[in-house]
Amino acid sequence: MFDAKRLLDEFLGSGAGAGGGQQGGGQQGGSGGGDYLARGQDYVRGNAGGLAGGALAGGLAGLLLGTKSGRKIGKKAVTYGGMALVAGLAYKAYQGYRANQQGTQPPPRDEPIPLEAPRGTAFDPAQQPGGENAFAVTLLTAMISAAKADGHIDREEQDRIFDKIDEAGLDSEAKAFLMDELRSPLDLDKVVAGASSPETAAEIYAASRLAIDPDHAAEKAYLQMLAARLGLEAGLVDEIEHAVRDAERLEARA
Fold first, then answer.
1. CA-closest candidate to residue 78, choices 8, 178, 131, 164
2. What domain count does the chain have?
3. Angle 62-26-58 (CA atoms, 0-180°, nearest 5)?
4. What single DSSP character describes residue 123?
5. What backbone torsions phi and psi does residue 115 show, to the nearest 5 degrees?
6. Residue 150 belongs to domain spanning
7. Does this model's pTM top 0.70?
8. pLDDT (tens digit, 9 = 90+) per residue, 139-181?
9. ∠ CA(172), CA(162), CA(217), 5° rounding?
10. Is 186 left (phi over 0), alpha (psi -120 to 50) or beta?
């Protein structure tokens, strides 16, 4: 099985691993819990045995996602790792949703995405059925499906992306996965089938939202249909939207 977790890191990390790779944790100075970028661990490695030092993120993910939402929070993906970022966004949204339901004070909007909170909960990547790598495949499938929703990945675009795949140094399994996902028709049933719980449903929606800015009617319709098929209540969908936009805003300040 190919390393889907790492591929997800590259998709969301926007090529931050290019040029030798940044390794190790970020226990740098800085007081206060808000310094989440300094506290996080860099999950994007260099190119040894892997994804050609960010060539994929600079090429394929750029073609897939363009300047979409996921590309706007690349530093957070480097800090958190792709799966932890998605889990943190969904967890933060769920906290706000539950607080609104219970009539209690929701977390402040400018509070950073939690790095530790999902551990031991249903949002913990390590708790996912089938393991982290299998769930990373689910999230990648969701992101690629969302990117196809507006129809911009036509046959000509596929050919350009396939050329980038050949340049990216991927192993044969990763290549086959990406090519199959790109060639196949949009299949919402397949995306929804990856949700094994309300929490994983929220994460699938969050990953899909990261892949696109819903500024076209087709993208808006896709997200609305996805939320309905996943059984997400409108309040939770709104909180996920807020969480993504807050992350973008905080990233712009960093």
1. 8
2. 1
3. 10
4. T
5. -85, -35
6. 4-253
7. yes
8. 999 999 998 888 877 788 888 888 878 777 788 898 899 989 9
9. 125
10. beta
